[in-house]
Amino acid sequence: MPIARFSPFELLLLKSRKQADTAGLMLLAWVLASNGQFTEADRLRLDEVAATFSHGHALEPIFEIASGQALEAVQLAAEIMQKDCCGEQAYPFLRLAIQMAIADGKPTTANHHILRFLADLLGVSPPEFARLFNDVAGKTFENPDDPSRTGYWQAKEHHRHQQEQARQEQQRQQERHSRERHSRQEQSRQEQSRREQAHSGGSGGHRQEQRHHSSHQSPPGDRARRALIVLGLEPGASRSDIRKAYRRLAQTHHPDRFFAQGEAMTASASARFQRIKNAYEYLMQVS
């Protein structure tokens, strides 16, 4: 004959100092879990409530069971709570359940159904629970939205669209801040390099650096040829041709056109645009 195995919640009840308190914590966690994943704020709320209960065990198993929406555990907790308190004796617990449901604002549809279930389970009539909800929340316990209405799903889609827009805006801000930080770092590095060069050998070292630099400069004609290649022009191009080529290439390779494609593409476009700009400025000086 196979040995019966206890569920995680049954094992928790065996360790409990007071099973009704453990059952109550289970149902309160169920209210929080109905909104999705537990947040850190949810954990803190239940921690504060648990400090007034006599359960004698860790809360992490409660969070895990509630997150898994274990209906057998919810049913067992409901049976224990039903035996322990009913009617006005259930008011303190229902007040806590209402506080959990409205912690982040308006109760969700799932919150409404769970609260009505708990009130009915503990023998509190709808009018009595409505008064209790008004005392705790300071507003009327209204009927939840009807998922069969077209407007219900339109509102959800609008909310989802707003969230997506907020996420994209946050991503754009992060990318912009990253580019600004990179630019500041590059400017700081160049400034540091200039300071080091200025102090590396005094005026004699500066003259030596100038001589070294001038010895490696390309002939003016060679630089002009490379600049023309960058702009896609032939030798002998007029200033008007140079301007037209620059405007065309600047529009094509401007970094702002690649912003939505990510930081790497924007950086690559920025490098191309800088080469185009340098070539244009040089040719306009020498032509």
Note down, in words, how this protein is organized.
With 287 residues, the chain is mainly α. It folds into 2 domains: 8-144; 218-287, DnaJ domain (Helix Hairpins, Orthogonal Bundle), CATH 1.10.287. 72% of the residues lie in helices and 0% in strands. The chain has 13 helices and no strands. α11 crosses α13. The protein is elongated, with a radius of gyration of 35 Å.
SSE ordering: HHHHHHHHHHHHH
Which sheet architecture does the biggest sheet show? none
How far the N terminus sits from the C terminus, by CA atoms, comes to: 100 Å
Radius of gyration: 35 Å
Count, helices:
13
What is the SS-derived class?
mainly alpha
Mean pLDDT metric: 82
Share of residues in helices: over 70%
Global outline:
elongated
The proportion of residues in beta strands is under 5%
Return residue spans where pLDDT drops below 50 for at least 5 consecutive residues: 202-219
> How many domains make up the 3D coordinates?
2
Number of strands: 0
Please tag this protein with its features:
single chain, about 290 residues, mainly alpha, Helix Hairpins, 2 domains, 13 helices
Outline the secondary-structure elements:
Layout: H1 8-15, H2 19-33, H3 40-50, H4 60-67, H5 71-84, H6 91-101, H7 109-121, H8 126-137, H9 150-199, H10 202-215, H11 220-230, H12 239-253, H13 263-286
